[in-house]
Amino acid sequence: MKFEQTGRFRGDRAALSDEHFADFRRAVIDHFIPAAARHVNQPGSAWPKGLRVKRVQGAPGVWEMTWSLAGPDGRATFEWIEIDGEPAIRWRRVGDHAIFSDP
Amino acid sequence: MFPKGRQAGRAAARCAGGDRVAVPGVSQERQAVIVALAVALGATAFVALGGGVAAKPPGPPTDAPLGIVGDGGSNELARPGRRGARRRTVPGELLVADTRTGRFLARRPFSIPQACVRASAVTPDGFAVLVSGSKGGPPRLALLDDRSVGAVAAPGAISNCSTRPSSVSHDARRGRGRSRATPDGRARVIGCTDGWHVVNGEGCRTAARPRAIASSRQPLRASRVRAGSARQQSRLAQPRAQRPALGPPGARGCDGLTFCHSVSSLSHMGQPKRRSQFVALAGSRGSITLPAEVRRRYHLDEPGAQVEVIGRSDGVIELHPVLPHRAEQAWFWTERWQAMEREAEEDIAAGRTRVFDSAEEFIADLDREAAERGLR
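^ Those are the sequences you sent over. The predicted structure of the assembly is below.
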């Protein structure tokens, strides 16, 4: 399964604190990627509840996932695309609690 | 449409009394001149929304208060009392002019995206101008004063604001819209019959809790509380010292901007706790009443809030709060995250992306970054 990331997503990753990056990495490697692969093979299969993966209402094509539930919310957005005819995931943005504290 | 006569006189009297005069884009010295004219003539100045140059000199002195005129196109609305005082306008600028002399005073950029001003009025406190209405889009409400006009000028700054134009114009006609500065001075709160609206540089949103402006100058009166809000009515009926606190824990003491715009509206985020409560079905229609805490937590007490009901095959009935967007996804619709998404779109359009040919490759990239950070 292929992945793609935007330049901004790469910058977001770098901007995460070590703790948040570790949480994000753990959520992606341990839960998200296996679930995404399962989703490709068995469309309609459930996502892990803890990730709270769902479509963003009002934003066609955009999905959200939560990678941190214990502390400040950590969110990431992605979309399903096709690369070379294969379903793939494009990471759009990832952020943490800072998005809520600086209006 | 504008407060006239007596209200204009009140505004002028307030100005003469030393209160701050909010004429966007006009220096204090100029405002002082306007106020002097207002006191002398029972009129102040008016502000022309739209831009461009006055098409013709205005008519003789009018009793128009501080106001706005023009709609960026039709020139049919927000007349300050006399046809002769109209201005030809073009979108994108705010004109400030003296109604008596027609003298152009200042010009400020301003925009209400795709908006056509359908109602406008000066708040009775003379501090701000309300603008409402739209053309083909959702209704919008803007508040222009000396603090927010520059911020509102940012494109899309008020795109989040939505209210019923009828209620605003209703208030505007009666001059009942009130505005107050939040304690930190960074936002303004407008009271209308359909609720409280908070405007700041980030945009505008509805504040369902009058407590958000509790420390402003004027106390709330029961007559001003939204009709049908039994909870607020009963609360106000109690002695002030015995009233229960409104808003989320910790809301007190934080500044108005934070409370109104961010913390309270997103306070449910990161709270995965669940509370089980039983509610009874009422009547033959099967109505249920959601607990007040739940309504408050998910902002179902805000105008336009709905609940999406999903009956699952496993016997579970899901209730999803919809604001019009799902409350649980409110973070996505914040100005900041929307800007982030726009940047992502720019990256995609410009090809600033990196492809990983396999999950392992992506994981390796994550591992490499973890190693650089010294993480296991």
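DSSP finds three helices and five strands in chain A. The longest strand of chain A covers residues 74-83.

Shout if you want it in another format.
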